[in-house]
Structure formats: C-alpha cells, structure tokens
Amino acid sequence: MSRIMTKTLEVTDRSASWAVQATLVVGASLLVALCARISVPLPFTPVPLTLQNLAVLLVGLLLGSRAGLAALSLYLVEGASGFPVFTPGPGGIAQLLGPTGGFLCAYPFVAWLAGYIFEQLRPRVLAGRTQSNFVRALIASTAAEVLLFAGGLSWLFILTHSVALAFRWGLYWFFFAEIIKIMLAAGIASAWQLGRRTDL
User: Within 10 Å of residue 194's Cβ, how many Cβ atoms?
Assistant: First the structure.
C-alpha cells in the first residue's frame, strides 16, 4: 500500500512540476510579446529599437536554458501563426523573412545560451573574491547578445548583400542601448538569485 501511495505522490509531483513549467514557458513568451510592443521606429533603419531583447535575456537567465529555449520557440510559433506578438509590422511569416527576421529566429538560441552559461558559471573565488551573480549574469548576457547580433547581421547581409549596410541597419544605432539592456538583465537576474537564496 505504501508503495502505491509513494508512486501516486511521485506522479502527482511530476504533473504539478510540468504544469508549473508549462505556465512559466507560456508566461515568458507573453512577456517577450509585451516587450515587443514597446518599440521605437528609427528613420534610418528598418530595425526598430525595442525592449524585446531585454526580455529574451531575462527569460534565459531566470528560467534557464531549456525553459528559455522552449519559451522563445513558442514565441516564434505564435508569431508565425499570425498572433500579434512581434514588433509592429507585417506579422507572421513575412516578418520572419523581413529585416528583423535574423534577430527573431536567433531568440530561442539566445535565451538558451544565456541560461546555459549562467547555469554553468558557478560562483568561484577569483583574486581572493567570490565571483558574484552579477558577473556571471553579465558574462552570460554579453555572450548571448553577441549570438543575437551575429544572427541578425548575417540575415541583414543576406538581404542587402552589403556588410556595411547590414552593420548600419542592425548594429551602430543599437550599440549603447544593448549595453544598457545587458546591464539591466544582469542586475535583475542577480537580484532574483539573491532573493531566492534569502527565501531559502
């Protein structure tokens, strides 16, 4: 009897855990969609300035690599299906094939990389000081942003056949804004980690 009860509790725990994970993944995809609506079109590039990238970094850092990958994959499926989750534009497949398509398609991998590096970089003692959560999150966010812009600029190069134009459209105007987003994501993620440890 006790074995049956134990197995029943294990199945119940797994179901509850799966439901929580599914809720987090769906919620994270909606967070990215919400941040995508906060965008500023720029007259000199078809790529808008948006908070979307910040949300992608946060999803990876806070949910981890696997859940981050799942959330952003779901986000792309939502957008490709015609739901209004992308920044204002044509929407659907047309938006994935447009100037921002390279950035959008990189999002699942960006979230995965941010989460993976943050998970793998355990606190270590460097030069007599313990490596902080902020430093770990900063490294993870920076690497993820490099991957994001590699994807975005590569697609812009394919569309324009010009490295100079790809960089002009997709990098120069966003450089300082992305540094701020990286710092914000690292700060929020490190504060979240600290809060979780305090609760424990």
Answer: 13
* 186 Cβ contact list (under 8 Å, min separation 6): 61, 134, 137, 138, 140, 141
Domain tally for the chain? 1
Per-residue pLDDT band for 141 (boundaries 50, 70, 90) equals: very high
The model's pTM: 0.87
- The CATH number of whichever domain residue 164 belongs to comes to 1.10.1760.20
The 3-state DSSP composition of the chain as helix, strand, coil percent (nearest 5) reads 75, 5, 20
Reference 117, options 139, 132, 133; nearest CA is 139
Contact (Cβ atoms closer than 8 angstroms) between residue 71 and residue 32: yes
Per-residue model confidence as pLDDT tens digits over 155-186: 999 999 999 999 999 999 999 999 999 999 99
Q: How far is CA 180 from CA 72, 187, 200, in A?
A: 22, 10, 30
